[in-house]
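Hey, can you fold this one?
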Amino acid sequence: MPAGSYRIYAVQYAERETNSSEVFFGDGRHEPMRMAYFVWAVSDGNRTVVVDLGFTEPVGTRRGRHFLRSPDDGLKLLGVDPIDVEHVIVTHFHYDHTGNHALFPRARFHVQDSEMQFWTGRYARQGAFSRSLETDDVVAFVRYNYDGRVRFVDGEAEILPGIRVLKVGGHTAGMQIVTVDTSRGRSVLASDASHYYANLEKDIPFPTLHDLPGVYNGFARIRELAAKPNLILPGHDPLVCERLTAVADGIYEL
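Sure. Predicted structure:
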């Protein structure tokens, strides 16, 4: 798989109504906003790496999210069958990134050491953290580890030539971002290291976090790694659907 030949696809599977105080640290305006939920496909036309797993419909319904479709239905519109996917990058263990793992029976899951350690450690049960995860998903990844299907990363690693993961922390203990070499230059899938374009552009963290200085360091790292600002892809911004090119219903290409 030659580096520089990848295309990146955002597959929207859910959405919800929110407000500015819930997405910008210290914001007291409560201005109405929307949040989009994506899974990502990085493909050269032959092999596809999936980034994040979304949440299942029962989990989304219980949490008041508007579920649009199962992520695998969106991936299949791209010709990607989850059964054939060999690599899934899990950027962190929050509930909207760890569901649907059962749809990928052949995949190896790439996870930061520190992320698994935190969510199986002493503080994970505290409400400030536990509200953001689904216990059953974390237990599933523990089982996948015993099955030999978790590939741990300690900081930085190449998944395939031209696709790398790098730990930035901040949002969670082992938050990782993904760099992808495309024909337009190096792109950065920021995931929840920057939920919205504005988090990064205005240096305003998202309120759910593990380490505030780490969030700012993550912002700096994202800017440093991206070849151009327009090659940075935030994790939940509906503007992704406007700034990328629509190629199918709810699917957008960088």
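The mean pLDDT is 96. Let me know if you want another pass with a different chain boundary.
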